[in-house]
Design brief:
Strands 4-3-2-1-5 form a five-stranded antiparallel sheet. The radius of gyration is 13 Å and the shape is globular. It has 81 residues and is mainly β. The chain has one helix and five strands, in the order H-E-E-E-E-E.
Length: 81
């Protein structure tokens, strides 16, 4: 169920809101992966340029913020020598 919600949010570029432990997180979801046998979701936090990962088993109360669409941030770092 969580995977379907996150997949729809990633495909439609919708922000999501969920509880992670005791903290409320608003995230632009980028992709779902696995780490040490646990599913994780990677995304950019609201009002930040930081990409973080969140473990599925700690996520609760997921809501898609349907009206807000985001543009994925693709970091391009110029190398000047």
């Amino acid at each position: 169920m969580k995977s379907e919600i996150f997949e729809n949010a990633i495909f439609n570029r919708n922000q999501i809101r969920f509880l992670y432990g005791l903290n409320e997180i608003v995230l632009d979801p980028y992709f779902i992966g696995r780490e040490s046998g646990h599913k994780v979701i990677y995304g950019k936090l609201l009002n930040s340029s930081e990409i973080r990962k969140f473990k599925f088993y700690k996520i609760a109360n997921i809501k898609i913020i349907g009206r807000i669409r985001f543009t994925p941030l693709i970091p391009i770092i110029p190398h000047i020598n």
